Amino acid sequence: MIDEGYIKFKLFWQQQPNNFMFDISDLMHWRDKMHELNLIGNYPELGIGFGNISQKFENGNAFVISATQTGNIYPITKENFTTVTNYDLAKNSVWCRGPLKASSESMTHAAIYAFNQSIKAVIHVHHLVLWQELLGKVPTSKVVVPYGTPEMAMEIKRLFDEEDLGNKRIMAMAGHEEGIITFGSTLMEAEAVLMDYYSRIR
User: Fold this and answer.
1) Distance from CA of residue 170 to its chain's centroid?
2) Which CATH number covers residue 45?
3) Is residue 5 part of a domain?
4) Is 155 helix (H, G, I), strand (E, B) or coil?
5) Domain presence at residue 2
6) Residues 6+ apart with CB under 8 A from 93
């Protein structure tokens, strides 16, 4: 069963136009590349989007992430992103500002950034065949752990501590059908990890 698009954390949203002080064209480029491969998109029969992408541009907790329910948009625009300004994993809370609410996966992205400061880019995609192939072969979250929750944040910490997630840079989400996450110090690095596995099933 697909479980996607529902925000499971407390979201404090400041609605305002984006006014980025940095260039997000690289973020937009890789998001559209994922869309072209149908790794980010939407389920028409369910009316919900899937997949998201984020990047850190500055020190601190802030990162820019594709907004909730933008999977069907192509090409992406700057107004389809939101800045997560802060988060509290223990209190299941996310603060964001932008024209749209942050992705339902913002808590998961936040956890990855929190547990490894060298990570500057995260890509979350959906692909059933690749997901089935990766389960148990790469760091895999427990099936009982839902996405976008403090439990998933702690599960990501476990994967860093016990399953070498920091070096593998890819994980399968057993409790989130089709869900795969890759990351790196750059978006190009995160994409390269994903494409390495993706190319093996094509």
Assistant:
1) 12
2) 3.40.225.10
3) no
4) helix
5) no
6) 9, 10, 11, 12, 87
The set of residues, in sequence order, having a beta carbon less than 8 Å from that of 196 and lying 6+ positions away, is none
Query: How many structural domains compose the chain?
Result: 1
3-state secondary structure of 194: helix
Cα 1–Cα 129–Cα 167 angle in degrees, nearest 5? 105
Separation between Cα atoms, residue 89 and residue 154, nearest integer Å: 9
Asked if residue 169 belongs to a domain, the reply is yes
**How far, in Å, CA of 149 to CA of 88, rounded?**
11
List the domain range (segments joined by +) for residue 156. 10-198
Amino acid at 181: I
Measured CA to CA, the distance from residue 26 to residue 50 in angstroms comes to 20
What counts of helices (H) and strands (E) characterise the chain?
A: 6, 11
Q: How many residues in the chain?
A: 202
Number of Cβ atoms within 10 Å of the Cβ of 47: 10
pLDDT digits (tens, 9 = 90+) for 118-170: 999 999 999 999 999 999 999 999 999 988 888 899 999 999 999 999 999 99
- Please give the average per-residue pLDDT across 15-31, as a whole number: 97
The answer to whether position 3 is within a domain reads no
SS3 labels along 71-123: CCCCCCCHHHEEEEEEEECCCCEEEEEECCCECCCHHHHHHHHHHCCCCCEEE
How far apart (Å, rounded) are the C-alpha atoms in residues 20 and 3? 31
